[in-house]
Specification:
Order of helices and strands: HHEHEHHEEHEHHHEHHE
InterPro entries: Diverse_substrate_MTase, Methyltransf_11, SAM-dependent_MTases_sf
Oligomer: single chain
Organism: Streptomyces siderophoricus
GO molecular function, one term: methyltransferase activity
Keywords: Methyltransferase, Transferase
Helix content: 25-40%
Protein name: Class I SAM-dependent methyltransferase
Shape: globular
Mean pLDDT: 93
Low-confidence stretches: 1-8
Structural class: alpha/beta
Largest sheet: 7 strands, mixed
Number of helices: 11
Strand order of the largest sheet: 3-2-1-4-5-7-6
Number of strands: 7
Radius of gyration: 18 Å
Length: 294
């Protein structure tokens, strides 16, 4: 895995009050999947966004072939769903926790007018890819000077000062977080008063489901994902001082569309990733959109 020194934060923002941190200590499976294996390049995540997608905007899916363009649109639409919770966002600063290649950061910048946008990721390879993919914007091309920054850092210890951003969002990254309480505290710290948090990913529905999921889905068994329980996670946000925590299940617009796409791809149709639909239909997990305010 490539090594990179940690950042102290974007220009104009003080770093973490405890000083610079060492490079994030990644679980071995996370390090490999997002480093050597580069998950964004596999067919299941066409377009490089690395999420299961929100398929409601694609219309009726039954009886038609889903294309790669449909898959990319579903991934973009999941970002649009999350970013749309901020309302009129133009000119407001934003942080994405778990930004990957930074495609969602650019979407936030260009479609929603969030500005500036900071992309934070714990994997140095992902930060390097994001910087390479968006080099022109980072260099000031297309009016991008100072509007986009990518920072290496962990969600449980963000290298930013207090009251730094108006909006904090995360799209399908929280399932990797080992320390949700620390993430919640950091979110409350870096958001400005009145700032908004929005995140989406899949959660176990109950503690019993969290115990069962590793037997069905290998990412829970091999250390890639953590089966956080939705009610416990929402309580953690509230316990960190965030208010107006709202939990919205959106699995009806995620799992069936994703499974239909997988079923139509010869190289994907028989793999274990199709068990996510099984886990949803049997009540073990669901996909959720959570919002809160500082």
């Amino acid at each position: 895995m490539a090594q990179q020194q940690p950042e102290t934060g974007p220009a104009g923002a003080a770093g973490h009050p405890d000083g610079p941190a060492a490079a994030p200590d990644l679980p071995p499976r996370v390090a490999k999947v997002y480093g050597e294996w580069d998950l964004a390049t596999v067919p299941a995540f066409a377009g490089g966004f690395i999420n299961f997608g929100h398929w409601a905007g694609l219309g009726e899916l039954t009886g038609r072939v889903l294309t790669e363009a449909d898959r990319v649109r579903s991934e973009q639409d999941l970002y649009r769903l999350v970013l749309g919770t901020f309302g009129e966002a133009r000119g407001r600063s934003a942080l994405e926790a778990g930004c990957g290649r930074g495609l969602g950061c650019v979407l936030a910048l260009r479609e929603f007018g969030l500005d500036p946008v900071i992309g934070l990721d714990a994997h140095p390879d992902q930060i390097a890819r994001a910087r390479a993919a968006h080099a022109e914007l980072l260099a000031g091309g297309a009016g991008g000077a100072g509007r986009l920054t990518f920072v290496l850092g962990a969600a449980q210890r963000m290298p930013l000062g207090a009251d730094t951003v108006d909006c904090l969002y995360s799209v399908e990254a929280v399932q990797h977080f080992r320390f949700p309480a620390a993430f919640a505290r950091e979110a409350a710290r870096v958001l400005r008063p009145g700032g908004r948090l929005a995140l989406t990913t899949f959660f176990a529905r109950t503690p019993g489901a969290a115990r069962e999921l590793p037997g069905l889905l290998p990412p829970y068994a091999d250390g890639l994902d953590v089966p956080h329980v939705i009610d416990e996670f929402a309580g953690t946000l509230a316990g960190a001082g965030l208010r107006d925590v709202v939990v919205r299940p959106i699995g009806d617009a995620v799992w069936e569309g994703y499974d239909r796409y997988m079923a139509q791809q010869p190289e994907l149709s028989d793999g274990w990733p199709r068990r996510y639909l099984t886990a949803y239909e049997t009540g073990l997990l669901d996909y959720y959109l959570l919002t809160a305010a500082r």
